[in-house]
Amino acid sequence: MLLSSIEIAPTALVPPFNWSELYGNNHPVELELGCGKGMFLKEAARLNPGVNYLGIERAGRYYRQAVTRLTRTGLTNIRFMQADALDVMDRWIPPQSIQTIHVYFPDPWPKKRHHKRHIIRPELLALAARSLVDNGEFRVATDHGVYGAAIRNVFSECAPLFASLPWQEDSPDRLPTNYALKWQRVGRTSWWARFQRRPGEPGRTRLA
Ligand SMILES: C[S@@+](CC[C@H](N)C(=O)[O-])C[C@H]1O[C@@H](n2cnc3c(N)ncnc32)[C@H](O)[C@@H]1O
Question: What is the pLDDT of residue 203?
Fold first, then answer.
């Protein structure tokens, strides 16, 4: 099957990414993990032509919808890869090369025995800490109270690596996502948070 110009075929490259080769420039790079149908990336890439975006989505159906939607826009500062986000963070992202990581409305896995499947867990934050530039950001939103509390806990445990930052509800960089709009329509509240990578402390180098 022919790939769209915004798709990255994992088999066509050898990790890690070389960002300047991938985008043809040296602009800062931002990641969205679990980008679903790509609404956030479409808006972010349109508003910020001087930033390169990479969307990672595991589910084939959503991945294809995101690629189709974004290919039509003609935006050149976006790429997509169908892959597992932790694997990409572990093997593909060069240290200290990412400006911001976005994770919006991650699957909540409400049953306790499934909590180990949460994408936001200590392993991910260790990899995020390694991949972010000093003062880079991790941005997250969820509608799920229990998962929101678990995310706060994980970040508190990683307090030497990340500091919490304020994020006003009407801030122009709180962009819509499919799930944000879905929950807004039914009047469900969401929790949005920003964390800043503290300079200095090294993150973990590889997944254990
Ligand atoms: C609830 S949806 C939210 C989609 C989008 N971020 C939004 O806000 O509309 C969560 C998405 O994360 C994807 N996902 C879950 N775990 C993942 C992983 N380990 N790697 C890549 N994608 C993942 C799912 O396939 C799903 O599309």
Answer: 61
Please tell me the distance between residue 200's alpha carbon and the centre of ligand 1 in angstroms: 30
Is the distance from the beta carbon of residue 36 to the nearest atom of ligand 1 less than 6 Å?
Answer: yes
Query: Where do the DSSP E strands lie in 50-186?
Result: 52-57, 78-82, 98-104, 132-142, 162-165
> What pLDDT is attached to residue 204?
55
Q: For position 4, what pLDDT does the model report? A: 73
pTM for this predicted structure: 0.96
List the catalytic residue out of 84, 90, 107, 173. Answer: 107
**How far is residue 28's CA from residue 119's CA, in Å, rounded to a whole number?**
24
Could you tell me if the CB of 56 is within 6 A of ligand 1? Answer: yes
Element counts in the chain: helices (H) and strands (E): 7, 7
Which residue's structure tokens are 């420039």?
Answer: 25
Please indicate whether residue 59, judged by its CB atom, sits closer than 6 Å to ligand 1: yes
Q: How far apart are CA 9 and CA 133, in angstroms?
A: 26
Q: Which of 32, 62, 121 to mutate to test the pocket of ligand 1 (most atoms within 8 A of CB)?
A: 62
Domains of the chain: 10-197 (3.40.50.150)
User: Do 8 and 79 meet the contact criterion of CB atoms below 8 Å apart?
Assistant: yes
Q: Which ranges of the chain have pLDDT less than 70? A: 1-3, 201-208
170 catalytic, yes or no? Answer: no
